[in-house]
Structures
1.
Amino acid sequence: MKRKSLQGNACPVARSLDLIGDWWSLLIIRDALAGTRRFSDFQKSLDVAKNILSTRLKNMVAEGVMRMEPAADGSIYKEYALTEKGRALQPVLIALSQWGNEFMYEPGELGSVMVDAKDRQPIRKLELVSVDGRHLKPEDIATKLGVPH
């Protein structure tokens, strides 16, 4: 079944999911944020088929989420590096991680937690805060249509 493109959708969530909405793309970005740069290292870490990985990486390069660079060690290999657009996805992954830690594990089950690299303490839970500093709940949020970008 061919996926329907959401590229021209008015909803920014739909447009974002059109690019990074499958699990492989988000896991590639997760690994890239952790320092993975080479195709073979992504493939090994994710245990993903090479054709799927190649397609996802090419798409992310084409969309400006990643760029290809010469290998840092001077070899003939190319490496993938996150762009500013790609690094800006880190809060999305942190939110998913925090949600997963809260709802996807049984009590006592081992998992992982994102921590501050400096002091190795867990990152404070992301919160939605209004311009005037109020902490927002889901019922406090609405969508405003027709906003120019």
Note: DSSP finds six helices and two strands in the chain.
2.
Amino acid sequence: MQEIKEYVHTVQYYETDKMGITHHSNYIRWMEEARVDFLAQIGWDYAKLEKLGIFSPVVGITCEFRHPTTFADRIAIRASVSEFRNVSMAFAYEMRKEDGTVVFTAVSQHAFLTADGRPARIRRDHPDVFEAFSRLAAPETE
């Protein structure tokens, strides 16, 4: 199995609120940054998928804020495929400070769509993509 490096984000001053705490909306952005990095590391970045006609909008997010972050904190983000189906996928995220404190956990749900907005059938139309994502998720489901 390919080793995926964690994505690291440094909290910027503009990402904090008047109390000096990172505004909650930024964690969703960091999830996307980590997901884009993850897909690039496995060789299936968004540009490549979209060139094949595969689009994967976010259709749901669940998250838990566990500990605040502040300006200049370095946040390590571990992204992984938690579920993969022929027409959808879920990513799990864990964000930690340098001292190991878990600050945020989340799951994002994604559909696979074609350019015209119809469900993409990954197994049938893109078996190489199906194989790559299947290896990352456990257990494999249809």
Note: The mean pLDDT is 94.
3.
Amino acid sequence: MVLSYQNTKLIFLVVVFFCINSVFAQQQNIKFEHLTVEDGLSQSTIKCIIKDKQGFMWFGSENGLNKYDGYEFTIYEHIQKDTVSISGNRITCIFEDYEGMVWVGTYLSGLNKFNVEKETFTYYTYNKEDNNAISNNSIGCIYEDTKGNFWIETYGGGLNLFQKETNS
């Protein structure tokens, strides 16, 4: 059997690929840590997770927002008549914007902006009298594009463009 130049070149590339691949395919030991209610988590059904720029892990559950520092949890829950607590406990999404602000979407309770220094929440909810209010209180997704536009997807209310400068 006579190999053509093209076949020889192809065989050479395949051999090089496997040699390089085997050099980089070293075994990694990945450790999983299972966090439960016994560890301080507010509830076992987790809907969303992010790691913020400071290294904190945020877990959105069916019963509150959980911040984990690697050792213990801080739980943020809605407190009736407390206007700076989170607006609701059923967390659907968490997002950290380019400025490091943590935003939290809820099911039926609107959008929340978390002030890290004061550990307080500002919330934005649907108001049929206000054309600049969010279109629905059930938040599905939060996203910031490269131009700084802030997009809020809602269940049943469509897509909202949020102006952070004017809070509308």
Note: The chain is about 10% helix and 35% strand.
